[in-house]
Amino acid sequence: MLTHDAALEWMTRWDRQQEGYLPHREERFTALIDAVEALGRPDPVVIDLGCGPGSLSARLLERLPEAQVVCVDADPLLIGLGRAAYPGLRFVSADLRKAGWTESLGLDRPADAAVSTTALHWISATELKGVYAELATVLRRGGLLLNGDHLDTDEATPTLSRLEHALHDRETARTFGESRPEDWRAWWDAIEADPALAELNQARSTAGADHRGSESRLLSDHVKALEEAGFTEIGTLWQHGNNRLLCGVRG
């Protein structure tokens, strides 16, 4: 049985391995939550897309305790881990790639913001159009999509893209040197070996919730999909190298 304390230990380990890929992870969290706060509501309705175990949502709720945060993911293990670690969050099991995912959100009014960090690149460019189009149906006019991720521009500005990668790589090397944190694969290997997580690991295997590849890594994929979904203002709010916070305003 996964206890609250054990789940928090796993979350500490999760955050550490994620920071190995994102030296400015906490700064990006802060920028994203600043944007939600700048909407001016003490009680915003926020949808966390591809929430994983809830790292972003937990931080958002700490800053805005009156917010209604709905965490959406398709991975049973990450949802189970998040529920045990953060009992104050509401998790919804849904696959963003399948039409109708918004029906399970249980919203009592249109959302003020949809947020995501290091998640939507797993979705193909074609499927991404459907995700953003459906999101627009539950997001109020003037509401925000805030997506923090590594998004590249090599098909449009190859030299700038190469420099963005170089800046990110050098910052990572300066931050960690030879003592890089545990990586993604090692974290999952440890998760799969924990007897307390056997049931959640089985559920994950049955659901086929493995992540493979970077399906929509281009900034242009996201901009085009947002434009087609009716978002009128789209741009980068915050950036370090190719690590950026993309914002779209629902028209």
Automatic annotation (TrEMBL):
Methyltransferase domain mapped to chain residues: 46-143
Domain of life: Bacteria
Gene Ontology biological process terms, A to Z: methylation
Signal peptide positions on this chain: none
Listed name of the protein: Class I SAM-dependent methyltransferase
Taxonomic lineage: Bacteria, Bacillati, Actinomycetota, Actinomycetes, Streptosporangiales
InterPro entries: Methyltransf_25 (IPR041698), SAM-dependent_MTases_sf (IPR029063)
One Pfam short name: Methyltransf_25
Cross-referenced Gene3D superfamilies: Vaccinia Virus protein VP39
Keywords from the UniProt entry: Methyltransferase, Transferase
Keyword Lyase appears in the UniProt entry: no
GO molecular function: methyltransferase activity
